[in-house]
């Protein structure tokens, strides 16, 4: 192969919605806070074990808080998406990052999924599946209305292409 | 039973009458009940005729379970009807949850004939029909569980004949055997890894069963005898002996598995462009892969096998079912000499020999080697840290054990790191993307470029520091994604863009020079 010295993928054009930061923060809070909360209650209510539970609370709380502080913002900087008339392109992850490209001619279904938390923030998630078991592109945390338009756009293109998309 | 209101106008008289499962299935289902009864008798024999409530409850519930299973089987026998018309295969089953399924002949991707040991005892087989529907893995497999072998073979022939009649496709010119079991290959049997794990699983389940039956295995005469004889030997000798026994049992186990899986193995190319694998001693399996759906090949060389110059060839094909089914059905050859696997590969895919040879693949950047070395240095430290850490409380000998473990592990893992780097390779071969990787099991894959339906580039924090990415080609076939590990970003993008021109192009940019 010839030398390609400095090719790289450009980030997809659109960021996800800013409200996604709030959504991810809430999500990480639900994940990170219950354990220190339980420890904290035990710390306050059972005096003889006070020292043990104090440490347990702190040890479980600090990483959780760090996660809540870092992850959502970092994710917001990474998560991006773009749909051209040929392909869907999306970037996701934070520490572990991922870029996915699927040509519209290979798209099989386009689904939307709104969990209760996403609804709370008026957000939506889109899953674009292909015939590959590992090929789904997920775009999470975009505005609900925008998601509707995007699904419509993708559905229109994928219907236009004949074949079983394998 | 139920009224025949489902006659379709399109399926006229050429369609056969409704067929049913074979009556011998009655015996098969009743024979299931023999297992708990036999266990009850066995427990009576072992305990000398004494029983207690726990034994009775255990066996009673077992009996009930088997009764239900047998009942379900019987219901299936009485309610299943199937027929083949000119354009579709129809299957009606169920009493309470009645299902009526019908598959257009043109959609059928594969027809397999398999038989489990009990079925074989009664001369029955199972016919599985795979439709191409990707939506629901469970619903897409139709199985006729319990028809005679002759019926199954005939039905399979008819279905394939009907399907190919409506599809003017060139028939392969050769109709020959590609490979057949050579009993000399059995020497690779002990080298498959299942054995040792199997010994532990078998031992654990025997122990548990005996325990449930109130038999303490340590009280059995045989065990007592062994204990008396070997009870006084030193510990290290005992451990060594146990390890040898386990290894030998494991090798026997994997050899037995090899024989069970691959006796009667034959790979042939049949009319209508179908690769057909037949294998199995007790449970005979037959897998048909349409060459149209064959997207590539995968050569797997796990470590003991690799050291002995052996390899195993898998098909990368769509329509083999979900992940688990695919894993079970993708094998094109048993563990064989490497040369044989490559020979079969060259014949199975006409793309030419050397497709999955590692020779000629491009090496990966040195940073990939550094990553592997770092990993090889990190693990011994982490592993040694546990006993050392504990040793600070519990005593010096743990510290020493930890340090020795670490020191021994470093060169071993370093050797693996170099071997893993050596395994890495990628390249484009004609219409195929070839990639190779793996420290323990080296996998070399050739994937048809037309079959790539998307890209998945990923980067771990460590790869980010080293400036590397992993390029994944997603496909409808096989595992769904095949990865080229640890390329520089530029290399990966260039590879992707050359393999499938145009797909990635709109999203590529030239980075400003960083010197």
Automatic annotation (TrEMBL), chain A:
<feature type="domain" description="YdbS-like PH">
    <location>
        <begin position="76"/>
        <end position="154"/>
    </location>
</feature>
<keyword id="KW-1133">Transmembrane helix</keyword>
<feature type="transmembrane region" description="Helical">
    <location>
        <begin position="21"/>
        <end position="46"/>
    </location>
</feature>
<dbReference type="Pfam" id="PF03703">
    <property type="entry name" value="bPH_2"/>
</dbReference>
<keyword id="KW-0472">Membrane</keyword>
<keyword id="KW-0812">Transmembrane</keyword>
<protein>
    <recommendedName>
        <fullName>YdbS-like PH domain-containing protein</fullName>
    </recommendedName>
</protein>
<dbReference type="InterPro" id="IPR005182">
    <property type="entry name" value="YdbS-like_PH"/>
</dbReference>
<feature type="transmembrane region" description="Helical">
    <location>
        <begin position="52"/>
        <end position="70"/>
    </location>
</feature>
Automatic annotation (TrEMBL), chain B:
<feature type="domain" description="YdbS-like PH">
    <location>
        <begin position="78"/>
        <end position="159"/>
    </location>
</feature>
<feature type="transmembrane region" description="Helical">
    <location>
        <begin position="25"/>
        <end position="47"/>
    </location>
</feature>
<feature type="transmembrane region" description="Helical">
    <location>
        <begin position="235"/>
        <end position="259"/>
    </location>
</feature>
<dbReference type="Pfam" id="PF03703">
    <property type="entry name" value="bPH_2"/>
</dbReference>
<feature type="transmembrane region" description="Helical">
    <location>
        <begin position="400"/>
        <end position="421"/>
    </location>
</feature>
<dbReference type="InterPro" id="IPR005182">
    <property type="entry name" value="YdbS-like_PH"/>
</dbReference>
<feature type="transmembrane region" description="Helical">
    <location>
        <begin position="376"/>
        <end position="394"/>
    </location>
</feature>
<feature type="domain" description="YdbS-like PH">
    <location>
        <begin position="428"/>
        <end position="497"/>
    </location>
</feature>
<keyword id="KW-0812">Transmembrane</keyword>
<keyword id="KW-1133">Transmembrane helix</keyword>
<protein>
    <recommendedName>
        <fullName>YdbS-like PH domain-containing protein</fullName>
    </recommendedName>
</protein>
<feature type="transmembrane region" description="Helical">
    <location>
        <begin position="53"/>
        <end position="78"/>
    </location>
</feature>
<dbReference type="InterPro" id="IPR014529">
    <property type="entry name" value="UCP026631"/>
</dbReference>
<keyword id="KW-0472">Membrane</keyword>
<feature type="transmembrane region" description="Helical">
    <location>
        <begin position="188"/>
        <end position="207"/>
    </location>
</feature>
